[in-house]
Amino acid sequence: MKPLRTQRDAAFWVIRVGVAFLFVAFGFGKFDSRPNSEWVSIFAKIGLGQWFRVATGWTEIVGGILLLPPATRIAGAAVLGVTMAGAAVAHLTVLGDPVSAIVPLVLGAIAVTTGLHEPSYDLRDFTIRHPARPTSSAQSTTPGEL
To answer: FRET label pair with 54: which of 42, 79, 110, 120, CA 20 to 30 Å apart?
Structure first.
């Protein structure tokens, strides 16, 4: 049986790959340029032109790819977090759909959380109980202990 730490790291890699795949898939979805495409109509309402739809698609693809390697995971988290924050602002202001702003906020939070996760800082490590050491001032110390 594998050690618990190895199992958690492997499980988190599955999550990280899944989140990266999600953003890459959303990014590729923005390249659908049919006039009746949902993304074409959303970006038409935003009013910056369809180039912005393509640029957003590339940004999501690059952010998803950067999320995978440990050396670039923070950059990927930053790219995706800022992109999703911008999408939420667009939903709130230009698109006038505050309920839909929740989706990019949640996706951005997931991307940032995934990118900032360091296995050595797993929260479950802090919940393991260690035997308490006595802290009484009456306890004597030897010269070698400090």
So the answer is: 110
Q: Dump pLDDT digits (tens) for 87-101.
A: 999 999 988 888 888
The answer on pLDDT for 60 being more than 90 is yes
> Rounded to an integer, what distance in angstroms lies between the CA atom of residue 73 and that of residue 53?
24
Residue type, 68: L
| 61-71 burial: b if 16+ Cβ within 10 Å, else e | bbbbbbbbeee
Can you list the alpha helix ranges (DSSP code H) found in the chain? 4-29, 38-46, 50-66, 73-92, 102-116
Structure tokens at 34: 């049919």
When divided into structural domains, the chain yields a total of 1
Structure pTM?
A: 0.72
- How far is residue 97 CA from its own chain's centroid? 23
Q: Does residue 9 lie within any of the structural domains? A: yes
